[in-house]
Amino acid sequence: MAQAIFTEEHEELRRSIRAFVEKELRPHADEWEEAGEFPNWVFERMGELGYLGLHHPVDYGGSGGDYLTMLVREEEMAACGSGGVSMAVSVQAEYVTPPIAKFGTHEQKERWLRPALEGRRIGALGITEPDAGSDVAGIRTRAARDGDEYVVNGAKTFITNGCRADFLLLVAKTDPEARHAGISLFLVDTDTPGFEVARRLDKVGMWSSDTAELRFTDMRVPAQNLLGEEGKGFHQIMWELQGERLAAAAGACAGAQNLIETTMEYTKGREAFGQRIADFQATKHKFAEMQTMVDAARALVYETAVKVNEGDYPVREITEAKLLATRMHFQVADVCLQLHGGYGYMMEFPVQRAWRDSRLARIGAGADEVMLDYIAKHMGL
Ligand SMILES: Cc1cc2nc3c(=O)[nH]c(=O)nc-3n(C[C@H](O)[C@H](O)[C@H](O)COP(=O)(O)OP(=O)(O)OC[C@H]3O[C@@H](n4cnc5c(N)ncnc54)[C@H](O)[C@@H]3O)c2cc1C
Fold first, then answer.
1. How far apart are CA 351 and CA 336, in angstroms?
2. pTM for this one?
């Protein structure tokens, strides 16, 4: 039923992304996970194939497709074998570039959006700080106006693509006395004096994606690098986060579906007590429950994406979709690991990677508790 949202064009796109993922990404997943990084050619190749700018404006190097093309890419990327690769690509295509397309000037789009969509320059998004994550208005990185420049001092942490980024979409305080109204966005080239990758961080999962702590010391950013209006950054970044959350939800549903399928195969090939693990009723019920959860989450994701595609801004539904889908993904990964028994806990079986990787989405892009708070608020609580 839900699949009816996709046209033949979407399905054609799906086939081409699937072939790319199978041939060019999946064979390298283990090697990149071990190396703790994947090569930059992935961005270049995906830019060349048009996969980074699917629903971005044609005038700046995008493909001008509808919003549902994003779902197709997120779903197919979930099969690349490494959550770190799909997350890093999402950061480029769905986190960093949409605000430039929406709020940027023509010059900013030519300078940052076009090369990012073409995969020639890599972007990172800097919201979170060592002392402020969920409470975005509580950030302390300061951008103080000085003539035609802003002088930036502060730090960011947990920044995906942060070690390799060519530019950063930076969220900073232009008015330290104000909370929400004191926040502004900046586009910062990472070769700007005063910009420093202070630390590369080790993580539980998403190994192939680099995560950085960044430091800014008297970093001078030209005033023309301000994205949108000064003091409007909180609303702009909240808008950005909606896209991030829906992309995460779409990837979570596809990731869970893939786990169900590979685990079904595993349980059909393993025996205990004289029968296949797949044939125990307890196992069948687990699969039935998991499939039900995936179908329910995916239906919400699709319904919400259709609304976005039609020009709505359904924040409550996006929040619910992110909460439901990412929780469901981790639950499915946990059950699938369990169904693998001891092999599930071994590094040579991919289910452990999915289990580690899927844990992140319950924290990143707004933790479960922040989603719940938001939904409760919309319910009038
Ligand atoms: C691998 C990884 C990649 C990331 N990539 C990026 C990135 O590219 N760019 C970026 O800017 N950030 C990134 N993040 C940061 C991520 O968005 C934050 O970790 C997340 O928003 C939570 O913030 P925090 O870690 O500071 O947790 P905190 O805000 O300190 O929260 C700690 C706990 O308290 C709970 N809590 C907080 N407030 C409330 C409340 N009001 N009610 C109830 N419970 C509450 C939270 O839900 C959480 O469980 C990344 C994080 C990770 C781990």
1. 7
2. 0.97
Residue with tokens 């961080």: 201
Residue 142 CB neighbours (<10 A) = 17
369 alpha carbon – ligand 1 mean position (Å): 10
Task: For residues 107 and 154, state if they share a domain.
Answer: no
Same-domain pairing of 155 and 199: yes
Contact 325, 300 (CB under 8 A): yes
pLDDT of 207-240, one tens digit each? 999 999 999 999 999 999 999 999 999 999 999 9
Range of the domain at 166: 124-230
The total of structural domains in the chain comes to 3
Q: Find where tokens 């289990």 sit.
A: 355
Distance CA 213, CA 134 (A): 17
Cα-only R_g, the chain = 21
pLDDT 10s digits, 72-127: 999 999 999 999 999 999 999 999 999 999 999 999 999 999 999 999 999 999 99
Residues 163 and 174 in one domain: yes
Tokens of 68: 């549902």
Torsion over CA of 333, 336, 341 and 345, rounded to 10 degrees?
Answer: -30
Same domain? 211 vs 243: no
Is 244 considered catalytic here?
yes
Atom of ligand 1 nearest to the CA of 370: 47
Distance (Å) from CA 130 to ligand 1 centroid: 10
Identify whether residues 291 and 245 lie together within a single domain: yes
Single out the catalytic residue among 230, 240, 244, 317. 244
Position 1 scores a pLDDT of 43
Q: Whose CA is nearest to atom 16 of ligand 1?
A: 364
CA 371–ligand 1 middle distance (angstroms): 11
Ligand 1 cavity residues, CB under 6 Å:
91, 125-128, 133-134, 158-160, 203, 206, 211, 360, 363-367, 369-370, 373
Owner of token pair 């060019």: 24
Residues paired with residue 150 on neighbouring β-strands, in sequence order: 145, 221
Q: What is the CATH number of the domain that holds 56?
A: 1.10.540.10
Spatial distance between the Cα atoms of 36 and 355, rounded to a whole number of angstroms: 17
Q: Give the model confidence (pLDDT) of 142-155 as tens digits.
A: 999 999 999 999 99
